[in-house]
Amino acid sequence: MLHYRQVINTLYKINSTTIKAIVKEITYKLDVNTLEKIEANNIQLNDIVRVKIKVAHPFVFDPYKKLNIGGGFVLIDETSCLTVAAGMVQ
């Protein structure tokens, strides 16, 4: 479980590019039963959330809706090197 205020140092991997990144904000969590946007005090495995991520430097990407191959990414924990999330760039 991840607490909302916890800072996560990650590696942001999109295509062949890997960049240091920090999850800055969890905007909301999506209730999969009602599709309601709810406050995200914590997130757990398989939760669907909207987040804001700050990356160390600019990179090239395509929005997921335009080109899903270039718009998907994964977040990798810097310490354990485990994948902690997958997402889509909007």
What does this protein structure show overall?
- The protein has 90 residues and is mainly beta.
- The protein has a single domain, classed as Elongation Factor Tu (Ef-tu), domain 3.
- Helices cover 4% and strands 52% of the residues.
- It has one helix and eight strands.
- It has one helix spanning 68-71, and strands at residues 2-3, 8-14, 17-30, 37-38, 42-43, 48-55, 72-77, 83-88.
- Strands 2, 3, 4, 6, 7 and 8 form a six-stranded antiparallel beta sheet that branches.
- A hairpin with a 5-residue loop joins strand 7 and strand 8.
- The longest helix is centred in the last third of the chain and has 4 residues, at 68-71.
- The protein is globular, with a radius of gyration of 13 Å.
- It starts with a strand and ends with a strand.
- The mean pLDDT is 85.
Write the layout of secondary structure elements.
Elements: E1 2-3, E2 8-14, E3 17-30, E4 37-38, E5 42-43, E6 48-55, H1 68-71, E7 72-77, E8 83-88
* CATH architecture name: Beta Barrel
- Low-pLDDT stretches are none
Task: Give me the count of strands.
Answer: 8
Mean pLDDT: 85
Helical fraction: under 10%
What fraction strand?
over 45%
Largest sheet: 6 strands, antiparallel
Tell me the number of helical segments per DSSP (H or I, 4 or more residues long): 1
Structural class: mainly beta
Helices and strands, in order, run as: EEEEEEHEE
Quick overview of this protein structure:
With 90 residues, this protein is mainly β. The chain has one helix at residues 68-71; strands at residues 2-3, 8-14, 17-30, 37-38, 42-43, 48-55, 72-77, 83-88.
